[in-house]
Here is the input.
Amino acid sequence: MNAITVPTETLAPHGETNAYVVDTVLIDPAGRTAELDRAVGGVEHVVLTHTHPDHVGGVAHYADACDATVWARQGREERFERATGVAPDRTFRGGTTVGPLTVIETPGHAPDHVAFATDREIVAGDLAVADGSVVVAAGEGDLRAYLTSLRRLYARNPAVLHPGHGPAIENPRRTIRRLIDHRLHREERVLDAVRSGARTLPSVTDAAYDKDISAVREFAEKTVAAHLEKLAVEGDVTWDGERARST
Here is the structure.
């Protein structure tokens, strides 16, 4: 299974999103390219791991060009149509089969996020990356769900993960463990910041990072807000969207 890289307006990595063709299924056509045009000759289905803008730009074109069945996450049909301009023909949920693929529920990075599994490999979308970490931003993201989704894939123990950005992940369990540990470490920093007296989102963010984040400040603050939301649900802090306090 090989990624077909599509130039997109995304920060990570290198302004490209990976599309995949698996037998008769086209996954995440982020835009139209000559390479993708050559790869879709036998495509009968178009699916997305999620409907963020850097994954959807080619849906309308390839659905029409391939006369393909367009699928959306059940219960998220309106979100899908707003993002793609295409009304889905069918819907899926966890356990649904689309061609040779089985849908796995993996919310967290986005509320409609799913992965697609063959016997031993998984197209993971923005659940995992080989290097660095995945943005889980307040509003769209849910860190409790994200960590559960990572653990779900860890339990499946796939041979390879194929991410939405960057190279294939050849040691999935090691990468998943790294991503979980990274999130839990950041959570500890956020909780320590609040317990030490940081109250506002900017002040908690400053305390939670020990590196220069000026280039990604917006994403860092949204990530910290997602951590505060998780900690509030779990009863470790109170957070009203403006001020945090330790409980």
